[in-house]
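Teaching soon. Invent one.


***
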Amino acid sequence: MSQVAVFLAPGFEEIEALTVVDYLRRANVEVLTVSVPEDGAEVFTEKVTGSHKITVIADIHLKDFIEKMNGEEPDAIYFPGGMPGASNLAANQYLFQLLTKMDRKGKIVSAMCASPAVVLAKAGILSNRKWTCYPGMENNLAEYCGTEDWAKEAMENSRHIKDVPFVLDNNVLTGRGPGTAEQFAMKLVELLTDSETAKRIHDGSCQR
């Protein structure tokens, strides 16, 4: 069974986070929701409040997740968008190291909405790749990456694709926004299981 870690930081986008978790669990994928503390916070708790003031209880907080994994990585990781959720994710050094390590190994790295621009771009994951994000955020990469020079280097030969629900480039899956969460989630289901499982869930949940 594939294992996916879904990282939730204060200010995460609730539709994007929970839609993906729901469909993955319908597909019998092992999903671990991980609470990530706000940038600079010293208190670790499983409770995380999203950008629309919906509070959820994650399966585990980041400190315990790190101990549980003991240097290993899951099969896939997912960063929902939302602000300042994406910024809190991008500020976490452990997540920066985890996603770059997983990318080098060809494991699935996925992100939606703000997170492709705010999290993946900063880590250099989108270099030489096609990708998408929440409309307009592709214009602020210097701000998210920290400097204009690093943004140019980190995004070298990348290509932003507009008006699509998601983009898959090798092992990196990026999505556009809340309204595309279902299509994004189903693509992740297909990647982690198979097309037959994805079709069963598609038909059984009355998707369009």
Q: What stands out?
A: The domain at 3-203 is CATH 3.40.50.880 (Rossmann fold). The chain has one domain: 3-203. The chain has a mean pLDDT of 96. Residues 73 and 137 are 29 Å apart (CA to CA).
